[in-house]
Design brief:
By secondary structure, this protein is α/β, with parallel strands linked by helices. It has 7 helices and 11 strands.
Length: about 230
């Protein structure tokens, strides 16, 4: 008789203003690890507003959340509130202390930094925010997925899928990771070659900085400097 796989608890932090693909992309992959149990944790079990116009209902509050084998912090514009919320930061510290993997997607790395979990580590974030990593004692490494010990950080949004496949290979072997990639038909061939500052039109990059990122980066920098 085949034994059931050992439970592998995956805890995603949820918060208002989350970028839903930062969470749902990795969750779609990681849930296929043998024994995986996915928990979505927030301060309160009430609808969490995403950046896509719909809400997600967490499965647990912080107090009732099981200990994570893998802790993942997604990003989003709501990160600015997370890094000022000591209750949430303490939850991250407590979970990270016993987690086998401590991970983030996009600006979720800034929340890990605010919790004191990036000091002396190599890490990444969304390209617009990587300059802020040094404020937490981290060294930015230019890569889509960066692994430093049990810390794994992913770049912006869609890189969360790459990070999740990396974890699956580490936990359960490359063959399973490849089979999940195939089953999800994750074979990206985007219609435009503009998915990273290194290849995008400089005018488009400047426009995004001016309209979207310049103010949010400065706001986050000011918050971090006050802490």
């Amino acid at each position: 008789m085949t034994e059931s796989p050992k439970p592998f608890h995956i805890v995603f932090l949820l918060f208002d203003g989350i970028t839903q693909l930062d969470f749902s992309g990795p969750a779609q992959v990681l849930c296929r690890i043998p024994g995986a149990i996915v928990h979505t944790a927030a301060r309160e079990v009430k609808p969490i507003q995403t950046d896509s116009g719909f809400a997600i209902l967490p499965s647990t509050n912080f107090a009732d959340c099981p200990q994570a084998d893998l802790l993942c912090v997604p990003g989003g514009f709501g990160t600015r509130d997370v890094i000022e919320d000591e209750v949430t930061l303490q939850f991250l510290r407590d979970q990270a202390a016993a987690a086998e993997y401590v991970t983030s997607v996009c600006t979720g790395s800034l929340a890990l930094g605010a919790a004191g979990l990036l000091e002396g580590k190599r890490a990444t974030s969304h390209w617009a925010y990587t300059s802020l990593l040094q404020k937490f004692g981290a060294k930015h490494e230019k890569a889509r997925v960066v692994k430093d010990g049990n810390l794994i950080t992913a770049g912006g949004v869609t890189s969360g899928i790459d990070f999740a496949l990396t974890v699956v290979a580490d936990v359960a072997g490359q063959q399973l990771a490849e089979s999940i990639q195939l089953s999800l038909e994750y074979d990206p061939h985007p219609p435009f070659n503009s998915g990273h500052p290194d290849v995008a039109d400089p005018a488009l990059l400047a426009l995004l900085h001016e309209r979207v990122y310049r103010k949010t980066v400065q706001d986050l920098a000011d918050i971090i400097d006050r802490q």
